[in-house]
Fold:
Amino acid sequence: MNRTFRPLLQHSRLLLRPALAIRSLSSSSSSSSSPTKQPPTYYQLFPTTLPYGPPPRGSFDLDPRALRQEFFKLQQLTHPDVISDPSLKRRAEAGSAYLNHAYSTLLSPLLRAQYILRLRGVDVEDETMRLDDEGLLMEVLAAREEIEETETETGLVPLRTVNDARIGESLRRLERAFAEDDLGMAKAETVKLRYWVNIRESLDAWEKGKPVVLVH
Amino acid sequence: MDNGTDINIAFPLLDHYNNPRNVGSMDKKDLDVGTGLVGAPACGDVMKLQIRVDRDTNTISDVKFKTFGCGSAIASSSYLTELVRGMTLEDAGRIKNTEIAKELCLPPVKLHCSMLAEDAIKSAIKDYQSKSNRPAPTLGANLMGSLST
Structure:
């Protein structure tokens, strides 16, 4: 075995844990050898790119290229197709799905922020929550109406510029909030980012005269 | 398209999503208009619902909405506009999201869309009532103030 791959392989055992956890739950045997084994956090799966873990120890910002490289290496090692032992195959499939999900979550700043907050017990994904920031609501509505009233593709360009600036500002504030461990500010900013990302999706999906329906 | 119509009749959710009713805006400064603006931060949806109230009968004479969100949120608000037209404010304020969800056969994961619509009508009624209870903060208010003193 290639030396650089050895720690990775050892580390890839982490990936089998979600399957283990599920199995121990379903068998509900009291004699489980590791009753409190938790599935690894998404951060634990990428020790090279994210050695300090989630904020406040690690930073919110990350290097997407490094993350991708580490993801590809891990994926090669744990892909169900490279595992011949049939008893391990199912676990490998669960582990592989978990890895994919971890990667896409960490790669997207919005999903990453939501995930970090979830790790800290802050819920931003409860659909019954209501936005109490009147100013933000008005701004979102105005931005939406501008897109709706746009006649041509080129008319979208200034709207995109404005929205990209909103996203950039949100990411800077999120970085600061997480660095200072200010979870209240991080939560508020994650909500804003959710709206700006939806607006970006609407800009990308824009077709003349067609109302934009969000898919989520 | 005949096929499309059949589908729309069988599935009110699709009908309201494909042909949303009463889309539009009213002048929010109009004292007879109540505006409800609500947002669900988890989904990034916004819903604006406006009612025009007939002062004499205290009933809703016109309704408009604009929803930027998923199909179920659009359908929920569209159906709600049809439901509340002609209703008294009291009755409209008592509408429960379950009525909307039942009519549209919303799946459990989309129940929150009907709750957003319920919140929107409540917020519009509240806005109308807060407007009609206090004198307009403009020239009209000064006139009314000077008349009453």
In short: Residues 1-7, 19-35 of chain A have pLDDT under 50 and may be disordered.
